[in-house]
């Protein structure tokens, strides 16, 4: 009996403390002798499979590894053969217990595509990845805990059009580390930034240095150019096609054509010169000027070497 | 000729195409077939449906997403900014935009977390694995330091250059002054000769100054200094050490963060001046030219 009473008293005390806690401001730092909370409240079992096809460049591989280190809820898989059909990935995800997937696809050893998909039921999006900078570059001076949960920052443009809001939801589900994830750390020291500029999505990762809002970039940084959105995962009916998208092949073709134009012009000029210079215009007797002598003083060009006046 | 033929063939092809198009009634008064504009799918309804289907209705703490307008300054004022491609192309403006967005999110997010009674910062003595290794961070710090040093160095050089420029000006002034004095002196001498003046004042002043001249060094006394080219060759070919494999990368050279290879520096011939203004030694003219010259002399 006594025990219960005591418990009630402690409850009352707790309530009092709670009231007083609400009034006083919370210290921002966790004390080191505070016992770590047992993370039993892990309800959001989101897992992301991050892997690639064969034939991606070293930079793309580094980017993939960076994403893996920053996302404790990610899983890896060995590279997929280029010949395999994409819908095989759905089965892979099922086997790995993942319900999101980031799949890097390298083409021609230079172009990098990224598939982001919600795995069994869709939607899925294909992006072209441009301007990749990895975390290992020395320009990015920030650092963060390997498994802390990121804050996700979005541009207001994401709410303006349907395809952007669809992407926003997909990104939130993919990139946010679930609360109380066993591998995660209970601190907040970095921000993932997604902004839309020039019809592309720009990704940045900043470290929160001080809580008054000074940031340093950690990396990686990349630009996602959406190409197509599908209803299913890695297939299905098309929901959206980006009208501003220019494939890298087309881009390269245009550049090459510009250079080629120079050569074509030169050939045209040569041709037109040939047509204008028709060769002999009047038939002359070549023996006519046999007896024409040129005085050495008046000689020009090669004739200068024919005669010279003897010095007296 | 073959080109002409092929172009003829092409024109015939296009003619038949045109005829066909005319027959099928595609041809409009402008004699051009109308190309149907490419259709880009944008199925808003289906996207809405899909969004509703796969949206998770979770608390904010599970998602941690925030939407922040980078054009809005923290005070709520609209910052003046142009939109579109100009920002995308301007590195500084673009990064500033992203930074501001992230900053707003960080401030708002952390305030929100504190409101939910969640502490955000880790204790000072809390050590855990970081995203970047200590080795890497050391490299980053070295790089930063290096850049700072380079900046200082260039600043110093700039200052020195300015000083030298100033020194040159001072020297010119001194020379001019000397010339002027000399001229005055000569004038005075002339006047003295003509008998317009009684005395030469500068003789006294010269005596008081005590003109001194350094005795000239003898030729043999000067110490011999080899030229730069010879110096480098001595270093390269002289006395001992391994000459082979000298140009290979080593672990040290590849890990060296400071130096980046530059052809202008690393592959230039030692002791030779560089730059466009350096004139080469007149080369020996070609055979035909030389014979021509020889003929002319005869």
Q: How does this structure look, described?
A:
The complex is a heterodimer of chains A (312) and B (298). Chain A has helices at 2-23, 58-70, 88-95, 162-175, 248-276; strands spanning 48-52, 74-76, 100-107, 111-118, 124-133, 151-154, 190-197, 200-210, 214-217, 221-232, 235-241. By secondary structure, chain A is α+β, with helices and mostly antiparallel strands. Chain A has a domain at 48-248: Brix domain (Rossmann fold, 3-Layer(aba) Sandwich), CATH 3.40.50. In chain A, strands 1, 2, 3, 4, 5, 6, 7, 8, 9, 10 and 11 form an 11-stranded mixed sheet that branches. In chain A, strand 8 and strand 9 (214-217) form a beta hairpin. The model of chain A has no long low-confidence stretch (mean pLDDT 87). Residues 1-8 of chain B have low confidence and may be disordered. Chain B has helices spanning 2-23, 44-54, 60-63, 85-89, 91-115, 134-194, 201-209, 228-237, 251-255, 263-266, 287-297; one strand at 65-67. Chain B is built from 11 helices and 1 strand, in the order H-H-H-E-H-H-H-H-H-H-H-H. By secondary structure, chain B is an all-alpha fold. Among the domains of chain B are: 3-33; 58-75 and 84-115, no CATH class; 134-208. Chains A and B meet through strand 6, helix 4, strand 7, strand 8 and strand 11 of A and helix 2, helix 3, strand 1, helix 4 and helix 5 of B. Strand 6 (151-154) of chain A pairs parallel with strand 1 (65-67) of chain B, so a sheet runs across the interface.
What is the structure about, briefly put?
The complex is a heterodimer of chains A (312) and B (298). With 312 residues, chain A is an alpha+beta fold.
- The CATH class designation of the domain at 48-248 in chain A is Alpha Beta
**Gyration radius from CA atoms of chain B, angstroms:** 41 Å
Number of helices of chain A: 5
**Number of H- or I-type helical stretches of chain B:** 11
Mean of the pLDDT scores of chain A? 87
Helix-and-strand structural type of chain B: mainly alpha
Order of helices and strands of chain A: HEHEHEEEEHEEEEEH
CATH architecture of the domain at 48-248 in chain A: 3-Layer(aba) Sandwich
Give the strand content of chain B. Answer: under 5%
How widely separated are the two ends of chain A?
148 Å
In total, the number of strands of chain B is 1
Biggest sheet character of chain B: none
Large-scale geometry of chain B = extended
CATH fourth-tier homologous superfamily of the domain at 48-248 in chain A: Brix domain
* Biggest interface pair, counts: A-B, 77 and 70 residues
Give the proportion of residues in helices of chain A: 25-40%
């Amino acid at each position: 009996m006594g025990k219960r009473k005591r418990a009630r008293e402690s409850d009352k005390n707790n309530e009092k403390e709670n009231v007083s806690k609400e009034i006083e401001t919370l210290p921002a730092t966790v004390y080191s002798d505070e016992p770590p909370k047992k993370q039993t409240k892990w309800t959001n079992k989101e897992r992301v499979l991050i892997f690639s096809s064969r034939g991606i460049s070293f930079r793309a591989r580094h980017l993939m590894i960076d994403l893996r280190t920053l996302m404790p809820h990610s899983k890896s898989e060995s590279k997929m053969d280029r010949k395999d059909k994409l819908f095989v990935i759905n089965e892979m995800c099922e086997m790995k217990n993942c319900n999101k997937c980031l799949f890097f696809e390298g083409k021609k050893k230079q172009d990098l595509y990224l598939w982001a998909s919600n795995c069994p039921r869709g939607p899925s999006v294909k992006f072209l990845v441009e301007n990749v900078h990895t975390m290992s570059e020395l320009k990015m001076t920030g650092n963060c805990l390997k498994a802390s949960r990121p804050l996700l920052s979005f541009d207001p443009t994401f709410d303006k059009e349907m395809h952007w809001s669809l992407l926003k939801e997909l990104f939130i589900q993919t990139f946010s580390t679930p609360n109380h994830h066993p591998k995660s750390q209970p601190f907040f020291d970095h921000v993932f930034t997604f902004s839309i500029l020039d019809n592309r999505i720009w990704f940045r990762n900043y470290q929160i240095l001080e809580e008054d809002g000074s940031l340093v970039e950690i990396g990686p940084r990349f630009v996602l150019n959406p190409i197509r959105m599908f209803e299913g995962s890695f297939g299905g009916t098309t929901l959206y096609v980006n009208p501003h998208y220019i494939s890298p092949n087309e881009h390269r073709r245009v550049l090459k054509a510009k250079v080629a134009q120079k050569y074509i012009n030169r050939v045209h000029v040569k041709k037109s010169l040939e047509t204008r210079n028709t060769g002999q215009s009047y038939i002359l007797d070549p023996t006519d000027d046999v007896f024409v002598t040129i005085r050495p003083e008046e000689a020009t060009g090669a004739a200068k070497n024919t005669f010279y006046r003897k010095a007296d | 000729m073959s080109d002409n033929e092929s172009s003829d063939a092409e024109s015939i092809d296009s003619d038949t195409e045109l005829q066909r198009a005319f027959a099928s009634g595609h041809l409009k008064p402008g004699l051009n077939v109308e190309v149907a504009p490419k259709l880009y799918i944008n199925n808003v309804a289906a996207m809405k449906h899909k969004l509703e289907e796969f949206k998770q209705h979770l608390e904010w703490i599970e998602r941690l997403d925030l939407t922040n307008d980078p054009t809005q300054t923290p005070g709520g004022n609209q910052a003046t900014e142009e939109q579109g491609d100009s920002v995308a192309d301007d590195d500084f403006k673009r990064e500033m935009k992203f930074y501001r967005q992230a900053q707003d999110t960080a401030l708002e997010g952390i305030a929100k977390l504190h409101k939910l009674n969640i502490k955000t910062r880790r204790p000072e003595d809390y050590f855990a694995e970081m995203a970047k290794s200590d080795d890497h961070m050391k490299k980053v710090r070295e790089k930063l330091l290096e850049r700072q040093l380079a900046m200082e160095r260039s600043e110093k050089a700039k200052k020195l250059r300015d000083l030298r420029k100033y020194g040159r000006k001072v020297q010119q002034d001194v020379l001019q002054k000397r010339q002027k004095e000399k001229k005055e002196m000569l004038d005075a001498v002339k006047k003295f000769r003509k008998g317009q003046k009684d005395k030469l004042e500068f003789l006294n002043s010269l005596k008081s100054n005590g003109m001194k001249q350094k005795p000239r060094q003898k030729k043999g006394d000067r110490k011999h200094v080899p030229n730069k080219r010879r110096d480098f060759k001595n270093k390269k070919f002289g006395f001992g050490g391994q000459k082979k494999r000298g140009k290979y990368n080593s672990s040290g050279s590849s890990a060296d963060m400071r130096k980046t290879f530059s052809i202008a520096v690393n592959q230039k011939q030692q002791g030779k001046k560089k730059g466009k203004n350096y004139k080469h030694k007149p080369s020996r003219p070609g055979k035909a030219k030389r014979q021509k010259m020889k003929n002319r002399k005869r």
